[in-house]
Design a protein that fits this description.
This protein has about 160 residues and is an alpha/beta fold. The chain is built from 6 helices and 5 strands, in the order βαβαβαβαβαα. Strand 2, helix 2 and strand 3 form a beta-alpha-beta unit. Bound molecules: adenosine-5'-diphosphate (ADP).
């Protein structure tokens, strides 16, 4: 079975990597699909976000990185996949994720969303927290892959 993990990944954190690694043991293939979101201002471009994911996941042969724009269900149809992977950190994620999962299924009854619960050591982690810490030149080495740490340093030096 093939599952798609959609998200912004701006940037990818060890929390995302943990979910992806665990899913790669449960499913034949996992595609991490980076959302091209015109309305949300991202720190990293779509190409940068995909490259950081590719480099962080290069040791896995059943994990792929792709991008999509528009509706997730249209992308799933195009790829002929009916499984969506999402991570749940806290109760606060649940409400939003439930709404998304129900909305997607209302469009297509065959779509199922599979949730993996965040590992406790990463359950407080979010991309926005990482951007915040990095913007003040704080230490993010415990929370992101090394390539992401380097990319954040470059971004905030440039800025
Ligand atoms: P989105 O903008 O779609 O929320 P994110 O990149 O923030 O995209 O997150 C993608 C998915 O990964 C979501 O299901 C989110 O709940 C989950 N996620 C984010 N951070 C973590 C984490 N630290 N541990 C587990 N899951 C996470």
């Amino acid at each position: 079975m093939h599952i798609i993990y959609p998200g912004s990944f701006d940037p990818v954190t060890l929390g995302h990597i943990d979910i992806i690694e665990r899913a790669s043991k449960l499913f034949d293939t996992v595609t991490v699909a980076v959302l091209i979101n015109q309305s949300k201002r991202c720190l990293f471009t779509i190409d940068e976000r995909m490259e950081l994911l590719r480099q962080s996941l290069k040791d896995y042969d059943n994990i792929y990185v792709d991008s999509f724009s528009g509706l997730l269900i249209d992308y799933l149809k195009k790829r002929d996949v009916s499984l969506i992977l999402r991570g749940l950190r806290a109760v606060s994620d649940y409400e939003n994720e439930l709404q998304l999962a129900l909305a997607n299924r209302s469009q297509n009854n065959d779509i199922e969303t599979v949730f993996l619960v965040a590992s406790p050591e990463y359950s407080f982690l979010s991309s926005s927290l990482i951007r915040e810490i990095a913007s003040f030149h704080g230490d993010v080495s415990k929370f992101v892959p090394e390539v992401v740490e380097k990319a954040l340093k470059l971004k905030y030096e440039e800025g």
